Amino acid sequence: MNILLINGSPRGEKSNSLKLAKAFLKGFCEQHRTKSNNINLETVTVASLNIAACKGCFACWKNTPGVCCIQDDMQTVLQQIRNAHLVVWSFPLYYFSVPGILKNMIDRQLPLVLPFMSESTDGTSSGSHETRYDMSSTKHVLVSTCGFFSAEKNYDSVLTMFEHFLGKGKCETVFCGQGELFQVPELHARTDEYLNVVKTAGSEYALGSISESTKMNLKKLLYPKEVFERMADASWGITKTTDNQNQKEPKDLIFTRQMAALYNKSSYDGRVRVLEMHYTDTGSTYQIQLGEEGSEVYTDGSLTATTRIETPFEVWLSISRGEITGSQALAKGMYTVQGDFSLMIHWDTFFGLASPSDDVSLKSNCAQDDNLKKPTMLTMLIPWMAFWIGLPINVTIGSLVALGLCAAMPLIMRKVRFTIWDRLSLFAVGLLSCFSHVTRNDSLAIPIGYLTFGLMWLTSCFTKEPLCAAYSKYDYGGDKAHANPLFMKTNRILAILWGSLYVLQAVWTYLLSNTHFAYLTVIVNSIIPCVMGIFTIWFVKWYPAWRAKRKIG
Predict the structure, then answer these.
(1) Continuous H helices in 248-355
(2) What would the pLDDT profile of 532-545 be if each residue is shown by its tens digit?
(3) Are 143 and 21 in contact, with CB atoms under 8 Å apart?
(4) How far apart are CA 3 and CA 139, in angstroms?
(5) Beta strand spans in 148-269 (E)
(6) CA distance 114 to 50
(7) Cα three-residue angle 207-211-215, rounded to 5 degrees
(8) Phi, psi of 228 (to 5 degrees)
(9) For 344-348, which contacts have Cβ atoms below 8 Å and span 24 or more sequence positions?
(10) Mean pLDDT across the chain, nearest whole number?
(11) 267: Cα separation from own chain's centroid
């Protein structure tokens, strides 16, 4: 199969539209190779060729039929078009049409048609010319980006022109607005997602046609209209009120304005926040006010910051480009945070615009199917609590209640995903309950229970995620939290503290179980975990914020 990619952008290889065209062809070729390895892909970069404008002399019709009198690179291009089974036209939208260099090339296709008048059978025009060669089986795909927030209603003239010389409905289209975003590294997460949809479209086209669901996804905006237009306006480095239009704003201010444009208004919780960005390498300080109506950038320092970030500008650029995660950079002391740290914890909520795939990813992290909710520590704790509370009251009844709960938990928590620690807990409590019921002895079973529970916590520190992280990670992006060193260290510390606490409880419970002070173990073992729980709530807020204020080196 011969495929011809025509890159009609004056930017050549730097073309945004070309990124989409390559993604489409990647999907097409991968799918086609499952049926045949016979693929010959040629690329025509119009900007690098010598293609003169058509003279309108009609020599290719009357003097040298089918052969243009101009001797340049167009002779080769015409042959490539004739040989192609699939032609992918890649170009940006210029003034609601194709770029001039591509229009030149299109005009020079005159040798491919006959001079004789014929009827237009598809209603595209009042007259037509038949093709000189049989290219009825050649397929055409138009791939283009434009600078508006949407492609809708901006390609009328383009479609009309191509339908005139290809025929009505003879070409597939992939038109995308917000095209300049494909060259912004900081937005690669969203643009890469869209490129994957384009790749899917290519794969489906290789099988016959692009599905309606994929077409709908291709029409989805990269960012909402308001967000994109604010980012686009900020990118020029001038404002409507700028007196000297030749005086461009500094790069760090342009970036800060674009970052502010990404603010998600739906994250407003009734509290106005002021994010102060101090770029230590440029010496600039800017403030972003985040409120109910949106965001606004202040350059005069007139606001009181609620969160202040001190960072080299280049470091923040690396974070935004995905070269290093914010959490990793923070753990390495590459920047510091002062004030309200909750903004950092929920950064993606304030400055992230969720896409459909994000929802799917989150669900896949939280549950095995759409009906399951994220894990809860209650699944693990309820059987243990019943065991520790029930046995001291009555060994026989307490062990049966704990055993019954172990059997009932899969039914009670049927809509909740179970972790490995939930399953281990059910097994351990069930085993210990059976042991207690048979021996009628709680003085040994209860300390063993505390020891088992403590060892679970301590053992989890040597796995990929500490026990508490298995439940809390869903508030930090699911499995993505594994790459957050501050999150992981916080949870490892807590897992060590909780594990050590329960091991100690096992020791003093066993030592006091046959003494006059046995009753104290029930009181102490109830109070200390409550105190530890209060400490945990404080620690998960204090420790990351404390670490964020420390600059290493």
Answers:
(1) 251-261, 313-320, 326-331, 342-345, 347-351
(2) 999 999 999 888 88
(3) yes
(4) 10
(5) 171-176
(6) 25
(7) 130
(8) -60, -45
(9) 344/307, 344/544, 344/548, 345/476, 345/544, 346/267, 348/477
(10) 88
(11) 18
Short-list 346, 539, 362, 377, CA closest to 468: 377
Give the pLDDT confidence score for residue 353 in this predicted structure. Answer: 53
CA dist., res. 528 & res. 508, Å (int)? 13
What digits encode the pLDDT tens for the residues 396-455? 999 999 999 999 999 999 999 999 999 999 999 999 999 999 998 888 999 999 999 999
| DSSP state at residue 152 | T
Amino acid letter, residue 327: S
Beta-carbon contacts of 481 under 8 Å, excluding residues fewer than 6 positions away, are 469, 473, 487, 488
Per-residue tokens: 95:
């003034």
Query: At 97, phi and psi to the nearest 5?
Result: -150, -165
Q: Compute the distance between CA of residue 142 and CA of residue 8 in angstroms, rounded to an integer.
A: 11
Ramachandran angles phi, psi of 213, nearest 5°: -65, -40
Q: Which of 135-170 are b and which e, b meaning 16 or more Cβ less than 10 Å from the residue's Cβ?
A: beebebbbbbbbbbbbbeebbeebeeebbebbbbee
Q: Report how far residue 549's alpha carbon sits from residue 490's, in angstroms, rounded to the nearest whole number.
A: 15
Give me the pLDDT at residue 112, please: 93
Question: Which residues lie closer than 8 Å to 552 by C-beta, 6 or more apart?
Answer: 332, 333
Distance CA 198, CA 216 (A): 11
Closest CA to 173 of 203, 144, 137: 144
User: Can you tell me whether residue 438 is helix, strand or coil?
Assistant: helix
Q: 552 pLDDT band (50/70/90 cuts)?
A: very low
Residue 517 has pLDDT above 90, yes or no: no
Mean pLDDT (whole number) for 71-99 = 95
Tally the residues of the chain. Answer: 553
**What is the per-residue pLDDT for 357?**
36
Q: Are strands 86-92 and 139-145 parallel, antiparallel or unpaired?
A: parallel
Contacts of 509 by beta carbon, 8 Å cutoff, 6+ apart: 446, 447, 450, 521, 525
**CA-to-CA dists, residue 328 to 43, 277, 353, angstroms:** 41, 19, 22
